[in-house]
Amino acid sequence: MDQPSNDLPSRLLLNLAPWRNALAWRIAFSGGLDSTVLLHLLAHLAKSQSLPALSALHVHHGLQAAADAWPQHCQSVCDALGVSLQVVHVQVQHGASLERAARDARYGAFLEATQAKEVLLTAQHRDDQAETLLFRLLRGAGVRGLSGMPRERVLGRGHLVRPLLDVTRAELETYATDHRLSWIEDPSNQDRQFSRNYLRHQVFPVLTERWPQAVTTMARSAAHLSEAQGLLDELAKIDLASASSVSDFDWLGLPSLELASLAALSAARQRNALSHWLAALTPMPDSDHWSGWEDLRDATGDACPIWRLGQGELHRSCGRIWWLSGCWLGHPCSVVEWTDPSVALNLPDNGVVMFTGQSPDGPLQIRYRQGGEVMRLPERGHRDLKRLLNERGVPAFVRGRLPLVFRAGQLLAVAGVAGLNGNVHGGWNLHWQPPHEDQGLS
Length: 442
Known about the structure:
CATH superfamily of the largest domain: HUPs
Largest sheet: 6 strands, mixed
CATH class of the largest domain: Alpha Beta
Strand order of the largest sheet: 3-2-1-4-6-5
């Protein structure tokens, strides 16, 4: 049974209690019913409660002519409540799903606007949670997807919080009517070609006619699944801790895991651990498209399989799996002249090289492996570079990126590889700081 609307302020305060020490609360304000009620509640609570600074954020998608009048409506509402408003215009990238594209643009604006120790509040409610559960169920989502929208999550340097997930749409409508609030009716909310609108207007009325408590029980199921996902996350952390051994090449700054530890797990635990590890790096494929992981895991001999994912690639080398993205997916090939070896040299898309100690006389060149390189080592004579890299267990994907220093056609040093990166008698070493641009983290 719905609770009275006059109980909403105390419930809202209880839900927001963990966030009372935030620097600011920003309300995602579309001007619709849900966000209008949330803004009104908070603005009036701020008169009697010590709350973080309130402000509103309106995202203008520009998808329909009617929306051009919405920023002015939002401004008038905020002015009446004494709350500042920021209007952000976004470009929606049209694709297969306009709903998804608009959501991505909106959350991109939220991410940009939320500063450190700030909280962005959105007004999704219990009915939205039930719709999300059914929508994802029809798309074949797993436990994580079926756990619905989380009450809170990290958003850039701040947090996103949904304080109305235990409130029904009917309660919000009652509050709005009681307080004579005005709000925007988005015409697109009636367009049943959009999946969520179809569920809201066509499916849920039928469900609730037969099962009046359907929304409540579905939201309860989402909460159970959220708890189950928490347990899966705990298991993933245990399994990843076992696979997070120290590597001789941690200095590359690339995420990696020990393959043998993962392979010893059941197939389900492998997928669970990898999904948890990769979640911050790339969108994951659905359960029918994990053959890339199996091919990588089961490869034998000298094979160097690659599993290509949305934002990068998973490589296997030297008994580990490695995540590569950004400029690591390219292969530097240009020759770079190093006229003053006493000064660090920036390499195009490949970090920085520098000498410590007394740098060798120039002019020098930085080149990359083409095959057939030979290097002279004290007491060993001339040795094939490929064999030297094999001896030191250099991962295959790194070899084409290693800066090689030449002088007058002679290979002097290989940056970053112990035993090949210096001259003991000359008193110098060649250091390489690999590229550390965005590795796909989000």
